[in-house]
């Protein structure tokens, strides 16, 4: 009933119902640190977008055929990618197919197309280059194919196409002799500028009276009217907008789409839009206008065929319409048909044309561009987990994000609807790891406290949810759950369990249900634990593997189908220990210390990958490969990563959860694509998510609850990008790195394995998850080795293999 009601709401949303626009704004996700309100930190081009984060780094996304994103390629980017490695950017502006930016030292930089000298340089650079030798730039504004800027001495400068009487590309030149300019805005082929005395000036093409007065084109600034109370300006393609110090907003110029407001008649001179006196900012696009009031309300009018007004329709608006929510800044472009805005809570949204991913929507066929679309989180991922129909992850900045089904409150946002886009849960930034059951979620904070995402009154189950502490839980090193029972390992190596015990899956003789964490035994050498469907498998430090609970399908691997209420050891065919484990519905998968892959239990859908479909009561090797790095078991399918960075899948595939482009069940592991840059994966009921070396997060399979992070509920049979989650800055994936063990005791050495002997001069560099460099070890050669870790404090770290040619690879480990 709840699911059908939620689906009906979203059906209304994507049939352009304005009423539901408010709902998606509430449910949407956020851009973490970096969406800020300062002028010049956001920019919109014709088909690309730019943003400077609070840490001074510059990010870009959208169309990139001319290198306007500045990432060194001409590949379109539907999610933000970092522009270089500098962290001292101050202001940015986007033209049609080029970009300009100023650093904190006052230097001016540009990249993208320069055929009209709009970058004051040749040839077209794919990365930021200095376009002037001075360090005295105060602001810059990019037009269609020209640019204007103000230096710190108040002088005004212009370069590019169409600003002079020759209509040829022009070098950088001063505009007039005045040194009292305050701000400037470049339009289609004209400019608006304010002087320090509050007067408004304009020059350039005047085809639609864009200069605020009738007459011919002007090649030097002319004053617009006589008022000296102008506060801010924004030049559209062929219409101008401005605010005055009394809070009024004024518009003029072309008006065939209602971008000036009113009846559609062109306005020859600035006229006030209504009698309101609460306007603080205005932004003019190609043929639409956005404006912000002092109360934080955002208003839009003009052309809306691409959804650029953000009101969930395609209707042209000749008078302002209000968007839901409160906002702090909005920007658009005289060349573009999309809009960026920052909400009052700091989240970054985009809407309008998305043909090149400029709205941050990874699939341009989605209708989400008619509403403010949340730019997905970007930053290093610390941990991720999939439930039956939802997904959760912890970023390296300590924030917690969820999306998908929410019938049982498993998303932790107290909203009784599924949420098909990632959203941050609360404001806490000290999360360390997350684990998802079928319909529940547990998460650990850095202080070791354990928290549950569920309805706080009725426990697992109920409508809506919040993040609540687990009563009497103490502190923890790791946790797991399947929705029916939960287990955790404390810092001292002890194993604890609680929840349903009907099959003995807790490993304690304490009845059918245990309400509080209860210690399993006296052992203090537990390393990891995995909760399957009514059974448990756990690993000790000596590499031994243990299991208890339901065993009808042989999921315990002890050679029987006898239910076990206490842990029994799973004995490998030879003396080698186990490296990692993962539990599914009726089966278990594990990687041994020698890199071989093994499985046991139910196999009806090929989830053991041994090409038989036969139930296995004891560990059975899957293939002959010896380079398996990790494995994740879904309910009836599996996904695994090899040390060469390839991704492999097998088992049930009725919803495309294998990502191989088919719906065929696979009884042997098959490779997903040809990529060699996968680092980690997680499998849900019928969906899968995986992380690449370049930091991008990908998902595929069933999407009926939005568990893939897409609001159209369409499943995918191949991996689709969920957004940038950049790893250690500047890394590339030309090399491969595996670490063992990934959880070390104080003083224990870290062992590494490479995909081939490193070139002379390779280094292994250790970072904290916040990017702080803590150690560096020159590698002696060979493909394996170890480094000491005596000086490292307990916590999570990233190890980066840095090769002399600039390529690198990263892997994560922890010191306890």
Query: Briefly, what CATH class of one domain?
Result: Mainly Beta
Which percent range describes the beta-strand content? 35-45%
Number of strands: 64
Examine the secondary-structure arrangement and name the CATH architecture of one domain.
7 Propeller
Q: Quick one: biggest sheet?
A: 5 strands, mixed
Strand order of the largest sheet: 58-64-63-60-61
Low-confidence stretches: 1-38, 364-368, 456-464, 724-735
Q: State the separation between the terminal residues, measured CA to CA.
A: 46 Å
- Rg over C-alpha atoms, rounded to the nearest angstrom: 29 Å
Looking at this protein, list some descriptive labels:
single chain, 816 residues, mainly beta, Methylamine Dehydrogenase, Chain H, five-stranded mixed sheet, four-stranded antiparallel sheet, 2 helices, 2% helix, elongated, disordered N terminus
Protein described:
With 816 residues, the chain is mainly beta. Among the domains are: 317-452, Regulator of chromosome condensation 1/beta-lactamase-inhibitor protein II (Methylamine Dehydrogenase, Chain H, 7 Propeller), CATH 2.130.10; 473-571, no CATH class; 580-728, Methylamine Dehydrogenase, Chain H (7 Propeller), CATH 2.130.10; 737-815, Macroglobulin (MG2) domain (Immunoglobulin-like, Sandwich), CATH 2.60.40.1930. 2% of the residues lie in helices and 43% in strands. It has two helices and 64 strands. The chain has a five-stranded mixed beta sheet, with no helix packed on it. A four-stranded antiparallel beta sheet has the order 1-2-3-4, with no helix packed on it. Strand 30 and strand 31 (400-404) form a beta hairpin. The longest helix is centred in the first third of the chain and has 12 residues, at 2-13. The model is unreliable at 1-38, 364-368, 456-464 and 724-735 (pLDDT under 50). This is RCC1-like domain-containing protein. Pfam families: RCC1, RCC1_2, WD40_RLD. It comes from Hymenobacter gummosus. Keywords: Guanine-nucleotide releasing factor, Repeat, Signal. One of its GO terms (molecular function) is guanyl-nucleotide exchange factor activity.
């Amino acid at each position: 009933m709840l699911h059908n009601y939620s689906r009906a709401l979203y059906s209304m949303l994507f049939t352009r119902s304005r009423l539901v626009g408010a709902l998606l704004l509430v449910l949407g996700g956020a851009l973490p640190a970096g969406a800020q309100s300062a002028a010049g930190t956001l920019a919109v081009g014709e088909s690309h977008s730019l943003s400077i984060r609070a840490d001074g780094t510059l990010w870009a996304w959208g169309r990139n055929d001319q290198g306007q994103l500045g990432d060194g390629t001409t590949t379109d980017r539907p999610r933000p990618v970092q522009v270089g490695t500098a962290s001292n950017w101050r202001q940015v502006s986007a033209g049609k197919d080029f970009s300009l930016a100023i650093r904190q030292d006052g230097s001016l930089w540009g990249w993208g197309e320069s055929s009209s000298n709009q970058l004051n340089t040749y040839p077209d650079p794919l990365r930021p280059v200095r376009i002037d030798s001075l360090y005295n730039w105060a602001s810059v504004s990019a037009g269609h194919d020209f640019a204007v800027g103000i230096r710190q001495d108040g002088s005004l400068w212009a370069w590019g196409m169409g600003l002079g009487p020759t209509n040829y590309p022009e070098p950088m030149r001063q505009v007039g002799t005045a040194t009292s300019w305050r701000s400037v805005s470049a339009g289609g082929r004209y400019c608006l500028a304010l002087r320090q005395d509050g007067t408004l000036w304009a020059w350039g093409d005047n085809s639609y009276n864009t200069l605020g007065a009738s007459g011919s084109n002007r090649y030097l600034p002319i004053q617009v009217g006589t008022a000296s109370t102008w506060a801010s300006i924004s030049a559209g393609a062929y219409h101008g907008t401005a605010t005055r110090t009394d809070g009024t907003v004024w518009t003029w110029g072309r008006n065939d789409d209602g971008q000036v407001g009113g009846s559609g008649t062109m306005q020859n001179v600035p006229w006030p839009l209504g009698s309101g006196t609460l306007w603080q900012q205005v932004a003019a696009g190609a043929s639409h206008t956005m404006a912000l009031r002092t109360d934080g309300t955002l208003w839009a009018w003009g052309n809306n065929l691409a959804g650029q007004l953000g009101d969930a329709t395609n209707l042209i608006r000749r008078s302002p319409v209000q968007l839901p929510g409160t906002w702090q800044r909005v920007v658009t472009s005289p060349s573009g048909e999309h809009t960026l805005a920052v909400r009052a809570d700091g989240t970054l949204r985009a809407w309008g044309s998305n043909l090149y991913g400029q709205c941050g929507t990874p699939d341009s066929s989605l209708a989400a561009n008619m509403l403010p679309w949340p730019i997905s989180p970007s930053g290093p991922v610390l941990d991720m987990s999939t439930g039956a129909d939802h997904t959760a992850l912890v970023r390296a900045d300590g924030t917690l994000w969820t999306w998908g089904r929410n019938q049982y409150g498993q998303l932790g946002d107290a909203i009784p609807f599924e949420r098909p886009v990632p959203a941050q849960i609360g404001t806490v930034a000290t999360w360390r790891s997350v684990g998802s059951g079928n319909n529940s979620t547990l998460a650990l904070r850095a202080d070791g406290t354990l928290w549950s995402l569920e309805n706080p009154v009725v426990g697992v189950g109920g409508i809506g949810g919040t993040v609540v502490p687990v009563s009497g839980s103490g502190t923890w090193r790791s946790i797991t759950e399947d929705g029916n029972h939960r287990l955790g390992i404390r810092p001292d190596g002890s194993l604890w369990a609680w929840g349903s015990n009907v099959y003995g899956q807790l490993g304690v003789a304490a009845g059918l249900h245990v309400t509080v964490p209860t210690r399993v035994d006296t052992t203090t050498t537990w390393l990891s634990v995995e909760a399957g469907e009514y059974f448990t498998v756990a690993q000790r430090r000596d590499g031994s593997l243990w299991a208890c609970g339901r065993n009808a399908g042989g999921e315990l691997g002890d050679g029987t189908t006898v239910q076990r209420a206490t842990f029994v050891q799973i004995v490998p065919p030879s003396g080698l220990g186990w490296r990692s484990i993962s539990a599914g519905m009726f089966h278990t998968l594990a990687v041994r210390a020698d890199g071989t892959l093994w499985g046991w239990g139910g196999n009806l859908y090929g989830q053991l990958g041994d090409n038989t479909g036969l139930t296995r009561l004891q560990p059975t090797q899957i293939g002959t490969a010896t380079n398996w790095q990790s494995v994740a078991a879904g309910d009836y399918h599996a996904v695994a990563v090899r040390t060469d960075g390839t991704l492999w899948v097998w088992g049930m595939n009725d919803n495309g959860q294998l990502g191989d482009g088919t719906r065929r069940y696979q009884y042997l592991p098959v490779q997903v694509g040809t990529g060699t840059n996968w680092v980690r994966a997680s499998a849900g009921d019928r969906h899968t998510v995986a992380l690449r070396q370049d930091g991008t997060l990908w998902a595929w399979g069933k999407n009926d609850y939005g568990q893939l992070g897409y609001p159209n509920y369409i499943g995918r049979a191949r991996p689709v990008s969920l957004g940038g989650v950049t790893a250690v800055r500047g890394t590339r994936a030309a090399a491969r790195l595996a670490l063992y063990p990934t959880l070390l005791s104080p003083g224990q050495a870290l062992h590494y394995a490479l995909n081939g002997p490193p070139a002379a001069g390779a280094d292994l560099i250790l970072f904290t998850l916040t990017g702080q460099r803590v150690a560096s070890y020159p590698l002696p050669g060979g493909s394996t080795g170890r480094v000491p870790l005596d000086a490292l404090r307990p916590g999570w770290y990233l190890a980066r293999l840095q090769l002399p040619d600039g390529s690198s690879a990263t892997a994560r480990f922890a010191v306890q």
